[in-house]
Amino acid sequence: MEIIDANIDFKLIGQRIREARAKKGWSQEKLAETIDVATAYLSRVERGGTTINLKRLGQISVALDIPMEELITGVIKEDYRYLNREFEEILKKCSKDKQRLIYNIARIVAGVKFV
Fold first, then answer.
1. What share of the chain is helix, strand, coil (3-state, %, to 5)?
2. How far apart are CA 17 and CA 12, in angstroms?
3. What is the pLDDT of residue 106?
4. How far is the C-alpha of 115 from the C-alpha of 67, rounded, in Å?
């Protein structure tokens, strides 16, 4: 069986949890109480000082009413704005000539006439 190294950034997940909690107007104590964990544990999770399992992440997701996928990746697949960010990252790595080629291909695919 092959082992997959997921390279999970727990610090980034913790930051997203903290931001979602703050957006909801909740204290660490309120969220910790809601998911039945110690405030100190939640604090470590938010700082990226400890790992978090999927069960706890799911509880946080439900409590904060935010998709678990967004906590993990920072994007929601249903929100197509993530494509804009990914496309922008790809374009940054291309030369100006390659960017022009990609632009022309996109126009063809979209059915936009050239001027």
1. 65, 0, 35
2. 9
3. 86
4. 43
Can you give the residue ranges of every domain in the chain? 10-73, 81-110
Does residue 22 contact residue 64 with C-beta atoms inside 8 Å? no
Instruction: State the Cα torsion 30-36-37-43 to the nearest 10°.
Output: -20
User: In the 8-state DSSP scheme, what is residue 46?
Assistant: H
CB of 63 closer than 8 Å to CB of 48: no
Can you list the residues of the chain whose pLDDT is less than 70?
Answer: 1-6, 76-82, 113-115
CA 34/CA 21 separation, integer angstroms: 12
Radius of gyration of the chain measured on its C-alpha atoms: 20
Q: Which long-range contacts (CB under 8 A, 24 or more apart) does 16-21 make?
A: 16/70, 16/71, 16/74, 17/45, 17/46, 17/60, 17/64, 17/71, 18/46, 20/64, 20/66, 20/71, 21/46, 21/64
Q: CATH number of the domain at 10-73, please?
A: 1.10.260.40
